[in-house]
Amino acid sequence: MGQKTHPYGFRLGVIKGWSSNWFAEKDFAELLAEDITLRRYIGQRLQRAGVAKVHIERQPKRVTIEVHCARPGIAIGRRGAEVDKLREELKTLTQKDVSLNIQEVKKPELDAQLVADNLARQLEQRVAFRRAIKRSVASAMRMGAEGIRIECAGRIGGSEMSRRERSEPAGRVPLHTLRADIDFAHSTAYTISGTVGVKCWICHGEVVDEVEEEQQPQQS
Question: CATH number, domain at 25?
């Protein structure tokens, strides 16, 4: 049995915050299911925009959604037509007032979700998987990542037996260091021979608490 844990959930409350911020006592299950529906709908609706993260905040009868994407121009549309249309669709879906904010991801090469999605699309287009993995690793390290690790599993390249392929070690990705800022994501490539899973870990360095630094006695 594997003893694996999610890198994001492992760091919740330490250096990571929640992607959904709300509190409910009675209708928790309904709101959680609504969050999942909203994320799936936005991901499919803005597939061409490259959605990296979706943050949800709730107030009574109001939902604030912040979408981080690589190509905000596609999500916003001409004169904001697309974002207005999406806002109306989400209002119909939730039966609440929806406030929608689109944020741009400055460096898509350093976002694990965008890297995993991009690699999955390349696998669907029958690009040589080793070359695609090496290209993703090289571009992330060139943009300033401290370390990156990519893993693919399934019938890679249309082979008869499924197998697991990992990228060559690049930099450092410490999974057990809580102060290490690890961005993790997974995506699925729907190929002709079956589905191929793609996982990506990107290390952005270590988060050092400024308060702890100030409390430490200065050496003379």
Answer: 3.30.300.20
